[in-house]
Structures are given as structure tokens and as C-alpha cells.
Amino acid sequence: MKRTLLFVLTLSGLSAVSTNIIKEYHYVSDSKTWADAQSYCRENFDDLATINNEDENVKLMSVSPSTARKAWIGLYDHFEAWKWALGDTDFNNGFSNWETDNPNVKHAPESCTKMTESGRWDDIQCFYQHHAVCYHEPGPTKYILVETLMNWHDAMAYCRFNYTDLVSVRNLSENNQISSLLSRGTWIGLHRKTWPYWSDKSPNIFTKWATNHPVSTTRTQQYCASVGTASGKWFDSGCGTTQHFFCQSFPPHQHEARFKLKFQSEADLNDPAVQQQILEQLHANLEKHGVADFKLRWTQTDGLTFHKEKKTKE
Ligand SMILES: *[C@@H]1O[C@H](CO)[C@@H](O)[C@H](O)[C@H]1NC(C)=O
Ligand SMILES: *[C@@H]1O[C@H](CO)[C@@H](O)[C@H](O)[C@H]1NC(C)=O
């Protein structure tokens, strides 16, 4: 009975700790371009900092200097990250039928693809109004031309609501079938996602942009993200400017973690022999659950390891 109780406490204590210790942030007060900051972090830590949620943003701020400035984090806008709307699948240089010198809106914050009536592809900014070709999985007619003028995002919403999605084009035969429907430039499902990845290759699932960021004008160069060290809000700037930066690391050996264990026992818990016995049991339980390379010891408050708690309602 006592063993079971100990075992439960051990595991819940462990998981409470692991979410906090998993990543550490480091502020580096050296002015570097984003690419040089990335190299520095990769050499000295793990990578530039990735922030996946509000808690991590708060954690990053806790190592941030109090003076207000911008410091790089790992997020960058990748000009080559094209995806098909359908299934959010990577385009990865599969079949394509670009017009000569396309894609050419490389430096727009976002780009979308229209097919011309001759079947060639042209990347343009997504706010333009065009007809769309939806894909209708159940058939029998798979390709549906929608002759309503819409921006690319509205076209996608239209296709997703009324059919399956904006159309994907996987080979020349599909390209020919689709282009035979067209009498003017028409949206297809190919789209360049903005700010898709972090430096450590994790997908972008959380952002905390400052108002009016990222700046939505045509880019002249690659853009990268930084955090305002006083506000915790994010800004985009040309990756070639120099800033301080945040790195992250995953320490293989956590320095020290404290758990508070609570249990009932008939034995005198302040007897050193009993304490030693409990430690040994904890040790064995942790090892049994795959935890390696650790030391356990009791800490004391007011000269005692254990403190009696008043009975509260169960
Ligand atoms: C679905 O199609 C109808 C007309 O066929 C259109 O009015 C409606 O806006 C479409 N739905 C969406 C979400 O776009
Ligand atoms: C084109 O791709 C579709 C979907 O993958 C496939 O069903 C079809 O057989 C392909 N056609 C040719 C000619 O390769």
C-alpha cells in the first residue's frame, strides 16, 4: 500500500518537473546578423530560440535584459516554403508548370498561384481577385470552375465549404484537364506560407506579433523575427541587420529539481534509517521507469526533513 502511494507521487512529481526543465533560454548580448546569431547558437547551445506558447514567451522574457531593444529569435520567413492547400502538403518541387522566370514574387510576404488559360502557373500576391478551380473528391466531376471573383483565401474557404479544397495539380494530365476549363487566370491551391518554420525546423504554431507586424509590404530581402526585450512582442526586420539574440538549449543533466512528497506512514519518518529506505525505493522506482543518471537526497527545512501536516478534508 505504501509502495503504491510512493510510486504515484514519484511519477506525478516527475512530469510536473519535465515540462519546466525541458528547454533553457540564453540571452547573448552580442550584435550579430540573424545568420551569424544562428551559427553562434548552434555552436554554443542548441539553436536560436523557438517559442511554442505563451508560457515559453514568458520564460524567454525572464532571461531578457530590462533595457528595451530587439533581439533575434529563431523564426524566419522562408521564401521557398510552397504548399498545396489540399492536405497542407509540401510542394517540394513536385510537378510544376511555372511561366518562365516564375515564381517571381519571391519577396512578397505571401504569394499564391493562378493558372493562366494556357495552363502555365504564375505566382502573385494573394489579395488579387480571381475565379477558382475547386477539387471535388467524391466526383463524378472532380474539377469545378467557380466563376466568382475572390481573393485566394476566400477561394480556398469557398472550395473547402462547398467541395473538398482548392485544386492540386500533380501531373501534366491533370494540368491539361484543369486548364481546358479556363478562360482567364484562375486560382489553384498552391500557396507560399509565411513564417512557416523555426531555425530548429519545428513548425510555427504560435506567434506574438506586435501591432502592424509582420510588416505586410513587398520585401526586398529575407525577413527574420525578433522579440522586444521589454514588451515581449515580436517584430520582423531584415535578417542582415545586427541585433542581440536568444539561444535555446536542452541541458542533458538538469542541475537540480526539488519535489515535495506527501504521504502517510506509521513509521517515524524522521528516523534516518527510514528516510534512507524511502530514498532507495524512490531510486528503484525511477530506474524502473527509465530515468537514468540522477541522484536523490532529502532536503531539510527548520532542521527537519518531514513535517506533519494537519489533516484536511479528503
Ligand atoms: C458556397 O457556395 C455558395 C454558392 O454556391 C456561396 O454563396 C457560398 O458563399 C459558398 N460558401 C463559402 C464558405 O464560400
Ligand atoms: C496523375 O495523378 C493522378 C493522381 O495522383 C493519378 O491518378 C493519374 O493516374 C496521374 N496521371 C498520369 C497520366 O500520370
UniProtKB/TrEMBL annotation:
<keyword id="KW-1015">Disulfide bond</keyword>
<feature type="domain" description="C-type lectin">
    <location>
        <begin position="143"/>
        <end position="248"/>
    </location>
</feature>
<dbReference type="InterPro" id="IPR016187">
    <property type="entry name" value="CTDL_fold"/>
</dbReference>
<dbReference type="InterPro" id="IPR018378">
    <property type="entry name" value="C-type_lectin_CS"/>
</dbReference>
<dbReference type="Pfam" id="PF00059">
    <property type="entry name" value="Lectin_C"/>
</dbReference>
<feature type="domain" description="C-type lectin">
    <location>
        <begin position="25"/>
        <end position="135"/>
    </location>
</feature>
<protein>
    <recommendedName>
        <fullName>C-type lectin domain-containing protein</fullName>
    </recommendedName>
</protein>
<keyword id="KW-0732">Signal</keyword>
<dbReference type="InterPro" id="IPR001304">
    <property type="entry name" value="C-type_lectin-like"/>
</dbReference>
<feature type="signal peptide">
    <location>
        <begin position="1"/>
        <end position="19"/>
    </location>
</feature>
<dbReference type="InterPro" id="IPR016186">
    <property type="entry name" value="C-type_lectin-like/link_sf"/>
</dbReference>
